[in-house]
Amino acid sequence: MTRRHPLKVLFYINLAVVVLLIGYKGYLNFFEPEFEALHTEQVARISDRLSGADGFSFAVVGNINNSVGIFEDRMIPVLNQAGLDFVISAGNAVSGGGEDKYRAIQGTLSHLEIPYLLTFGAKEHDNFGSYRFYDHFGPHFFSIRAGDARLIFLDSTGKTPWQWQIRWLDDLLSQEPDRLQFLFVGHPPLEPEHEAPFQQADDFLQPPEFRDALLDAIDRHNVDMVFSANLALYSDQVRNSTRFITTGGAGGLVMNDDTSFYHYVRVDVDEDGDITHSMERLEAGQNPILSTLESLWFFIYSLFYVGYVNFILLVSVFALISIRLYTAIFVAKDYYPDYDLDPQPWLSLPLRVAMFTNNYLPFIGGVPISIARLRKGLEALGDIVLIISPRYRDQPGGETHVIRVPSLLAMGERREFRLANIFLARIRKQVRAFRPDIIHLHHPFWLGWLGLFIARRLKVPAVYTYHTRLEHYAHFVPLPGNLFRNLISHELVKRFANRCDGVIVPTYSTEEYLRMIGVRSPVFVQPTGIEYRQLQEVDEKDVRKLRESLDIGDEIVFISVSRLSNEKNIDFMIDAIAELRRRSERPFRFLMIGDGHQRERLQQRIDELELQDCFTLVGSIPPDDMAIWYHLGDAFLFASKSETQGMVILEAMAAGLPVVAVRSSGIDDVVRHGFNGFKTPEKQDQWCECARQLLEDDSLRRELAAHAQEFAADYSVEQFAQDVREIYALTLAQFASR
Fold first, then answer.
1. How confident is the model at residue 29 (pLDDT cuts 50, 70, 90)?
2. Cβ contacts of residue 408 below 8 Å, gap of 6+?
3. CATH 3.60.21.10 correct for 34-302
4. Nearest 10 degrees: CA dihedral of 631, 637, 642, 646?
5. What are the domain boundaries of the chain?
6. pLDDT for the residue 40
7. Whole-Å CA distances, 140 to 123, 154, 228, 513
8. Does domain 532-715 have CATH number 3.40.50.2000?
9. What is the pTM (predicted TM-score) of this model?
């Protein structure tokens, strides 16, 4: 049994906290009341407050950065009591352009008892925030009248072309040359006297052409004051007759030293139009030793919408990372098999094997045939096999060592998929009486679950064979297709495989898939065996008789074997065969062997394309007769992408048929392009061209046929059973060593 790491519970608790908090943040983002065009309301409030007033006062703040600890808790109460008419943010009111940050600043600003306006700054623009600013507040650049003054707001982020803004600014300032002019731009156009913390070149107004044009316009029109933010300091400079103030201490990352400190700027305009201003420093109450640490604390605290909730979120994420790092660094792992295991004691004794499968003969399919062959091979080696499978109406009588389970539900048009009654107590009793040494599971659900449960109760190892790519069977599941295909199917396989003591896969590509989805159990690559000898022992008289019964003359015969179901991609072959008939004049017949719930629809498609003379849906063929049908063919065509091995391809090769198949897992390992057949992407043109080559080039077809038969010789049932038996023995040795 897998030993549980002591940090695992803590890991999942942290994961649950993160999920809950993300859900809570999603609620805040999507279910809280909407707000839009707030500047419209604020401008109206400013106009009302200044109506008939002789003068006015306002505050300019910068770098709020969603600060709860400083701006909301400490500065807003001061501003509300300062006798101001309105407040202006010079930029970086938010810490990022995300929706939660905009909702946070709206919540923070709602505590102000006076009107406010925001400048569109660098942080407002981040993370696609420009459209949120436009929706929630208003345009990126604009101007308003405030008493006898004009307040002008520019966009310094690059969102709005600077040439257009300069032209607009020139026109605006030319119309009212005698009015007081206050200009707000997020990035400072001048460098301060002292370097700001973490100062970088792009913290200033860019590009240089914009900065030069703006300074020229300011000089020509005698702008009174220019305010900007984006730097965590206070700077007051005069250039020509204009005062340039950079203010960046309303929140965010402030160092609390002589250069970087919390503050706001107060501006007073009297009835004569005289302007006075003062910098109002906010004492944060930090002791000198912890000032830097407290600043960092406020920075982290102010990152998110609701400070304490998001701080927990941040801590939880870091806790997850820490646990993962601890596990990766300090917990020893051994990625190699235990080569000291001795399987010989189990190889020298007959084994008792119980197999659980959701389908079995007489249901015709790759999994039932594979199980039947494995059972035959194991019994030939002296082992005893018990098969637990669903009950069928036409199942053979007198079966030994098969437990048939009645069905709760039969699905499919032909009721071919059966949901066995896994709740019957007698199943568990019969398996317990059988006393298995090992339990072999062939599906990761239903009867597979029952088999795994019994294995744990009986304390015997469980081995799982990964036969089927479940994601291709989403159309059978009463769930949203993409949900099952992209998430549930892979998670189901991973969790089931990790609960087993060993996993058998038919090809290396399927082993790679299991590792990619997170399977940690030992994986053994073991191709399914085929009846190689039986496929060689075919009487040509039987083949000729079959050819005559199908009224086949000198045509080239293509064979395919597949269940008639969506995941087998048969529509692709029908369309490709129609195209092949247009491309080649050489006559051929295509025999599609197999049955399924899509038969009527596929036949209708064949009729629509007028392929009745060359495309035949043969139906089901008894397994013992398949060798004759394979030998009837000249080549094997296949388009399914749901295989983990493609056992029918190996059978066809053993009968001397070269293959044309769509490249996919399982196919890629057994078809060697240009040697024993062709494999192409799921592109009709390429697939059809390969089929045309085998149709028209007799020498190529014979060459590939010889290689195919030689290749398939390594996949006999006898070798298959011997190899699986060794996997059983290794698994039993590993299980006994725990």
1. low
2. 419, 420, 421
3. yes
4. 30
5. 34-302, 344-525, 532-715
6. 95
7. 13, 7, 15, 50
8. yes
9. 0.52
